[in-house]
Amino acid sequence: MNDARLTARQIISRCNMSPRPECYSGRGARLGDLNGDQLEAIYDLVKREYGDEAARNFVYLVAETDVLSATVFLNNFYRLGWNDWKRLDLQPTTDLDQLDPGPDREDGSQAAVGQMMMANFLSGSMDRDETPAIRGQFLCDHAEELDEETRQRVCESQMRVTNDGGIMISYPNEIK
Questions:
Q1: pTM for the complete prediction?
Q2: With the C-alpha atoms ordered 79, 80, 83, 87, is the resulting torsion angle positive or negative?
């Protein structure tokens, strides 16, 4: 591993996402904001820059974040980086976790983001939860990196064996 490693923000920028959580604030968990291809690209960069253990802890972050809105994901991802890529003790996501107006740059952007965020909140956009579709394939592809309990809870609930012996991924409304 080299000394000039990418930061968490740089990793996000290289994976076709805005590194600013407030850009996604109040929108709920949407495939248009975050998807499995982006998760895979982030995983690859974390593994390349920080190693196998950091990548495995990233898989746990994806598995243990109950609502994978882009805002919550980015804030948790940055916490993972600040925690030296060690596994986080994640708490259940609240509506407030999905709201982040960003820093006050004294240019009016924080107020504008705050207004859009409140409009999304009031319109019910924040209720949208496509978490299973966002992470389903990624977690099934990385199931061997999870402990048995987490694997059963998150992955196997989404995998079904078809009559011809194949595997079909289903995306239930909620993973318990």
A1: 0.73
A2: positive
